[in-house]
Specification:
The structure holds two protein chains of two kinds.
Chain A (H helix, E strand, L loop, with lengths): L2 E6 L4 E7 L1 E6 L2 E5 L6 E5 L2 E6 L5 E6 L2 E6 L2 E6 L2 E3 L5 H17 L4 H18 L4
Helix pairs in contact in A: 1-2
Chain B lengths: L3 H58 L16 E7 L9 H18 L3 E7 L1 H9 L4 E5 L8 H16 L5 E11 L2 E10 L4 H8 L10 E3 L2 H79 L1
Parallel strand pairs in B: 1-2, 1-4, 2-3
Antiparallel strand pairs in B: 4-5
Classes of the chains: A alpha+beta, B alpha/beta.
Chain lengths: 132, 299
């Protein structure tokens, strides 16, 4: 039996698919869900989420913090910003990463720039399809 | 001089006609915007439902209910009012009814010895309260037409910030709720402090017994800590979306009324013009006949 995965952003349901396994990173570390997982609620870190489909393919999604709720065979990923690889503008992300690095170089304690850099890196990794 | 009145009326008719064209266009634009706004509100629902469902899970797990956003003050000294209006007018009674409801709330609060703090969305509300010398603590523009989630977040930061810092002890949300295309009504809702998570869970309508024992990472209260601000944002977002849909629905109705009135006016003016033309012709004939009579009797 497959997992029913829903990727939900505040403005819309970004993706609805079935999967054999979902890999996410919560505040306590990486965790993977397969059908039959115990009910689970976790806080997601800004990271890639990988969804494995039944035929072994996998899909990367950039998730910038949020939650994951697993109940029965349903996995709901709630995120303020959730982007599929196809929706990411790699050039823009690269430019954002560059800007964030420059800001960090000027002020290493700039938390906002650090977060921006992290976001840009995730986007780039998802666009390039690099593993989690 | 004959024909003068007729000319004036003709000019008025053409002016009413061009106004009608504009109001008709605005009506049609508003009609498509309502549909779009409704679709957006619909698309945003799954997220809000999911958030509520996680809160239900937390309530079922008996998470600690200590959170700054849940703080119930014993004495309410100052109330924050979030008033959602539009940036643009020509929307019938949309802005005025929201503003009036907000002002009534403020008056009632002041009578009970509670100070107010105004957080305004939309230029119309800001203009109104500024003109009347109300103290405005924050105002936002450019988000009422098609609200984005980022707008809701900015608003939420302002509102939650004031509540958490103790600047205000209660937050009331005043906006126009979208019931259906034909009916929107002003809603005055207590927004903060949030109801206890058990109450939120109950509002969600979930059955607690159906919920299995959840595992929480990092911990139930850790999840709550991150979740509640999101919940506030999503509530504000849905209020903004509702308000946008109501604004467009009101504008559509107002513009439809204006178009109908223009049509009526054109009919009335055309009748008047025709009568004036007939009168002018009659006068002219009388003059010609009179002149001919005079010439004949003289000859």
């Amino acid at each position: 039996m497959a997992l029913q995965v829903e990727l939900v952003s505040p403005e819309e349901v970004v993706l609805r698919t079935s999967a054999s396994m979902v890999l996410v990173r919560t505040s306590d570390g990486d965790i993977a869900f397969q059908p039959g997982h115990v009910p689970f609620v976790g806080v997601l870190l800004p990271e890639r989420v990988r969804i494995y489909s039944d035929d072994g393919d996998s899909q990367l999604i950039a998730v910038h913090s949020g939650f994951v709720e697993v109940a029965g065979d349903k996995v709901a990923i709630l995120s303020d910003v959730a982007e599929l690889a196809g929706d990411i503008d790699a050039e823009r992300a690269a430019a954002a990463a560059e800007r964030a690095r420059a800001a960090l170089a000027a002020d290493p304690d700039d938390a906002e720039a650090a977060a921006a850099l992290k976001r840009a890196e995730i986007r780039l990794a998802v666009a390039a399809g690099t593993a989690i | 001089m004959p024909g003068g009145e007729e000319r004036i009326l003709r000019r008025r008719i053409s002016s009413v006609q061009s106004t009608k064209k504009i109001t008709r266009a605005m009506e049609l634009i508003a009609a498509t915007r309502v549909v779009k706004a409704q679709q957006r509100a619909h698309a945003a629902r799954p997220y809000a439902n999911r958030i509520t469902s996680v809160i239900e899970d937390l309530a079922a797990a008996g998470a600690a209910t200590e959170h700054a956003l849940l703080r119930q003050s014993e004495e309410i000294r100052r109330v924050g009012y979030v008033v959602i209006t539009s940036d643009r007018g020509l929307a019938g009674p949309y802005n005025s009814s929201v503003i009036r409801a907000a002002e009534r709330e403020i008056m009632a609060g002041t009578r009970d010895g509670r100070d107010y703090s105004l957080i305004l969305v939309g230029r119309k509300g800001r203009d109104y309260f500024r003109f009347r010398n109300y103290r405005i603590d924050a105002s936002f523009e450019g988000m009422s037409d098609t609200p984005r989630y980022a707008d809701a977040r900015r608003l939420s930061e302002e509102v939650s910030g004031r509540f958490i810092s103790g600047d205000v002890d209660q937050v009331i949300l005043v906006y126009m709720e979208f019931v259906s295309l034909g009916s929107q009504k002003v809603a005055v809702r207590r927004f903060l402090p949030l109801a206890t998570i058990a109450e939120i869970a109950e509002l969600g309508g979930g059955s607690a017994e159906a919920r299995a024992a959840f595992e929480f990472e990092p911990s139930p209260s850790g999840v709550l800590e991150v979740l509640l601000p999101r919940y506030v944002e999503s509530r504000l977002f849905s209020a903004l979306l509702d308000a946008a849909a109501s604004e467009h629905a009101n504008r559509q109705r107002a513009m439809k009324a204006a178009t109908d009135n223009a049509e009526e006016l054109i009919v009335k003016l055309t009748r008047m013009m025709n009568r004036a033309r007939q009168d002018a012709i009659t006068t002219e004939i009388m003059e010609i006949v009179g002149g001919a009579e005079a010439l004949r009797s003289a000859g």
